Amino acid sequence: MIIDHIGFAISDKSTSDTFYAKALAPLGIVKIAEVEGWVGYGRSGKPEFWFGEHEQPHNPMHIAFLADTRDQVDAFYAAALDAGGKDNGPPGIRAIYHPNYYGAFVIDPDGHNIEAVCHTAT
Questions:
Q1: Does domain 6-118 have CATH number 3.10.180.10?
Q2: Does residue 23 have a pLDDT over 90?
Q3: How many CA atoms lie within 13 A of 65 on its CB side?
Q4: Does residue 113 carry a pLDDT above 90?
Q5: Would you list the domain boundaries of the chain?
Q6: How far is the C-alpha of 118 from the C-alpha of 40, rounded, in Å?
């Protein structure tokens, strides 16, 4: 990841926790910590993606999670839809970015555009 961590406000911690637990599992991203009402997800014991309840969630954001394979992108998309996400672009090549950009987009419970992307040819 190119940043140390990111955090943003959501409207309902339980709803978001359920959504992200399912949607991010295919990417190997799991809940690692809960601190003062905030939930942190990551890999290898380091929480990098945080969210917490606030009376006013952030305006819609775009967050892209790195996938190691295209199969992980497909699994993320299916899991996110199963968790209540809304389709915002099914898995596929987005050649406008580069020839191997394989991504999928969903809208989370608060309207954020969440993506999984793989940059390799497999």
A1: yes
A2: yes
A3: 31
A4: yes
A5: 6-118
A6: 23
